[in-house]
């Protein structure tokens, strides 16, 4: 047994209890919905940010009636900066509470940034005359320009700093050989190192043409302590989970996952798929909102790449394996999903005319169908005339949308 790890308990946590935890902790059950974007993001630990629209749709699905997510998310991201968009787990862009950014940077992003800089320098050395000194001077010019402007797009920075428009030959001598621009790679490295941050995009809230701005500096944290903090937050939101779930979600080495579990004193419990972990103060059973006199069934329409369906590697406890082919693309990215009481029961899409349509893959009964239809109507109400097309298309989403 790892030092610091609690002994295996007699507790077995089955799928029903895990779904009960999910409904409340992920702000999906009606009484658990949040009042602000910050509250929702804090409950989920991170909002998947690869597709900009997913951030807004994920928050909107979890806000109380009458709260408009678009303005609230934009305020948090671009005015208050209480939420920050940055690279995190698995080298992927997420939106985190600003208070958690330092832990993500130290535990996850810094090691990835070191590798990213090393790879870029290797590509420059192989395909151009540029070296580390040239790269450092280019970065200095970019940071100086942003300090004056406050924010700028990559194109605007390229006009102001002409060397940023330089190119290099990628994959020289291979089938993949081609000419690439330096700009996107330099801005990516600076962003991963926490020196610049994505700001308000051009266009609507679905746009990925972000402006860049100087980043608020993160306090330096010990990487091991940072990993423990991130695991603590994640287990509070998503526990119980297996070691494999945690390794997949974080992208860390298994030794780092085990060290973090030991640091927080994680308690072993029994799950259908094997040994899982919860925090020491989270062993007791939780109320089940699906049954009893105070039953609170809930419906939700979650977007592509939502943090709930993308939260665990093992998903059978909330997703019928027979539905995976329709709801995931070939790379494992989930599309828009319909939920009923903690289970994925179908998918949804938006047609070119803006209509929200859905299809159930499971018989859920008339009451559930009415609740799901009401959620679809609520979603359509605040999306308005904005057209939302997931970045990663899945079979069912393509079929429903007609695209």
Summary keywords:
403 residues; alpha+beta; four-stranded antiparallel sheet; three-stranded mixed sheet; 14 helices; 41% helix; AlkZ-like; Winged helix DNA-binding domain-containing protein
Describe the structure.
The chain is of the alpha+beta class and 403 residues long. It folds into 2 domains: 1-34 and 222-403, no CATH class; 111-214, Arc Repressor Mutant, subunit A (Orthogonal Bundle), CATH 1.10.10. It contains 14 helices and 15 strands. It has helices at 15-25, 37-44, 52-60, 69-79, 101-127, 132-149, 154-160, 182-192, 223-238, 243-250, 254-263, 324-327, 366-383, 395-401; strands at 8-12, 47-48, 83-87, 93-97, 152-153, 167-170, 178-181, 196-201, 210-214, 267-271, 274-278, 299-302, 337-340, 343-350, 356-360. The chain has a 4-stranded antiparallel β-sheet. A 3-stranded mixed β-sheet has the order 1-10-11, with no helix packed on it. A 3-stranded antiparallel β-sheet has the order 2-4-3, with helices on both faces. Helix 5 runs antiparallel to helix 8 (182-192) and helix 9 (223-238) packs across helix 11 (254-263). The chain is globular. The N and C termini lie far apart (52 Å). The mean pLDDT is 93.
């Amino acid at each position: 047994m790892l030092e610091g790890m609690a002994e295996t308990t007699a507790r077995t946590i089955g799928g029903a209890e895990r779904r009960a935890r999910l409904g409340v902790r992920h702000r999906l059950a009606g009484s658990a919905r949040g009042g602000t974007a910050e509250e929702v993001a804090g409950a989920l630990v991170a909002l998947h940010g690869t597709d900009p629209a997913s951030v807004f749709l994920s928050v909107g699905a979890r806000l109380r009636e009458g709260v408009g997510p678009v303005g609230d998310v934009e305020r948090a991201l671009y005015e208050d900066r209480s939420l920050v968009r940055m690279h995190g787990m698995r080298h992927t862009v997420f939106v985190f509470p600003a208070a958690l950014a330092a832990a993500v940077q130290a535990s996850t992003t810094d090691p990835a940034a070191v590798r990213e800089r090393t790879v870029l320098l290797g590509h420059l050395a192989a395909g151009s005359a540029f070296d580390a000194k040239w790269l450092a001077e280019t970065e200095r010019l970019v940071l100086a320009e942003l300090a004056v402007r406050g924010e700028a797009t990559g194109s605007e920075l390229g006009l102001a700093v002409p060397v940023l428009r330089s190119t290099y030959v990628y994959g020289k001598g291979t089938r993949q050989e081609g000419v690439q621009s330096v700009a996107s790679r330099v801005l990516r490295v600076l962003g991963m190192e926490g020196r610049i941050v994505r700001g308000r995009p051009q266009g609507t809230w679905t746009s990925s043409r972000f402006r860049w701005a100087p980043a608020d500096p993160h306090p330096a944290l010990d990487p091991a302590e940072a990993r423990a903090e991130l695991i603590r937050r994640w287990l509070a939101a998503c526990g119980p989970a297996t070691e494999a779930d945690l390794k997949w979600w974080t992208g860390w080495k298994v030794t780092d996952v085990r060290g973090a579990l030991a640091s927080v004193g994680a308690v072993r419990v029994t799950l259908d798929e094997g040994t899982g972990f919860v925090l020491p103060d989270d062993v007791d059973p939780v109320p089940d909102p699906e049954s009893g006199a105070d039953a609170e069934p809930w419906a939700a329409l979650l977007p592509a790449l939502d943090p709930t369906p993308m939260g665990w590697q093992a998903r059978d406890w909330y997703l019928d394996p027979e539905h995976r082919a329709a709801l995931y693309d070939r790379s494992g990215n989930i599309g828009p999903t319909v939920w009923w009481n903690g289970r994925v029961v179908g998918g949804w899409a938006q047609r070119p005319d803006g209509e929200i349509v859905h299809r159930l893959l499971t018989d859920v009964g008339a009451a559930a169908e009415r609740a799901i239809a009401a959620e679809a109507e609520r979603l359509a109400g605040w999306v308005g005339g904005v057209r939302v097309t997931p970045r990663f298309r899945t079979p069912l989403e393509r079929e429903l949308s007609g695209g």
